[in-house]
Design goal:
single chain; alpha/beta; TIM Barrel; 2 domains; two-stranded parallel ribbon; globular
Length: about 300
């Protein structure tokens, strides 16, 4: 009910006030959640069937990006070039019906550069999971975009989720969950830093692979908490790497200050992300598998043999 009330009132609350209130709320709860965020002890337990990543890599690294608005859409190529120049690949998730149109040329460019893309909800209005009937109604259109864009990847806006309902989508993988994040609108973490199979009879294949994000989303530490270094990512990265886990992060191009001007209260310096990627590359060179979500899903499905 609180979540529904928030989305009703949200359009009437000035954006700066929204962020101020969210920042105050998170700061007030940091001490309470220090034992479960950003690291949840016990989430590193390996599945019995897991014997390691391909080619003996120490851990898997999955870079993902949710494109929220037109501003973010216009920065996709810039972010892709940044990652490509540093030797990384990633996946972009687009909202089909918002304030930008996903051009076929954009999807071709992403694929031609060895990157990947997926569908992020439908409208990003907070109502996708308002009822099962509403979800199934929207699922028809989401499936049409999945087919049109030739992708099998999905993530729900705001990380809302119902893994049973998501099974109605024609997907190979979903990325709408997290290991632990008490600051999300729907804070029920899945408690693991590994992918897992979601058995679902609605799905044509009987289920799909769930890929939870395992590093804090960029918005919380860098926009709300005003962190100026990637230390929170680096500390958890080292912990995940030590446990041979999946390092999956969600970075929004909408919130990146590519010119490092510091002028926009809703953006963080691009050098935070660059420094993080450089740290990964320098400390773990040759030890990580920088994989696309579809590659992780295909590998995980092959080892669990559902």
């Amino acid at each position: 009910m609180l979540k529904k009330l928030f989305y009703i009132l949200k359009p009437f609350i000035p954006r700066k006030l929204q962020l101020y209130l969210r920042r105050k709320l998170i700061i007030s709860k940091l001490a309470k959640y220090k034992d479960i965020w950003p690291i949840l002890k016990g989430s590193e337990k390996k599945p019995d069937y897991f014997n390691g990543w391909p080619e003996g890599k120490q851990f898997a690294l999955v870079l993902t990006h949710d494109v929220e608005h037109k501003k973010g859409y216009e920065r996709v190529s810039k972010l892709m070039d940044l990652e490509k120049n540093l030797g990384f690949v990633s996946s972009f998730n687009f909202v089909p019906e918002r304030d930008y149109r996903v051009e076929p040329e954009m999807l071709r460019t992403i694929s031609n550069n060895g990157f990947e893309y997926g569908v992020q909800g439908l409208y990003h209005d907070g109502k996708l999971f308002s009822s099962e009937q509403e979800f199934l109604r929207r699922a028809e259109k989401i499936n049409s975009y999945l087919k049109e864009w030739n992708t099998k990847g999905f993530r729900a806006p705001a990380m809302h989720h119902n893994l049973d309902w998501i099974g109605a989508l024609n997907i190979d993988y979903d990325m709408s969950t997290f290991d632990t994040d008490p600051f999300e609108p729907q804070p029920d973490g899945v408690g693991t830093v590994f992918p897992f199979w979601v058995d679902n009879k609605r799905h044509s294949s009987g289920g799909y692979i769930e890929l939870p994000y395992t590093l804090p989303q960029d918005f919380t530490p860098f926009v709300l908490l005003k962190e100026s270094t990637p230390d929170i990512w680096i500390k958890k990265l080292d912990w995940l790497a030590a446990h041979n886990a999946m390092v999956l992060v969600n970075v929004h191009p909408d919130y990146i200050d590519f010119e490092s001007t510091g002028k926009n209260y809703e953006e963080f310096d691009v050098n935070i992300y660059i420094d993080f990627l450089k740290y990964v590359k320098s400390k773990y060179e040759g030890k990580y598998w920088n994989a696309l979500p579809s590659q992780i899903a295909a590998y995980w499905k092959s080892i669990i043999k559902p």
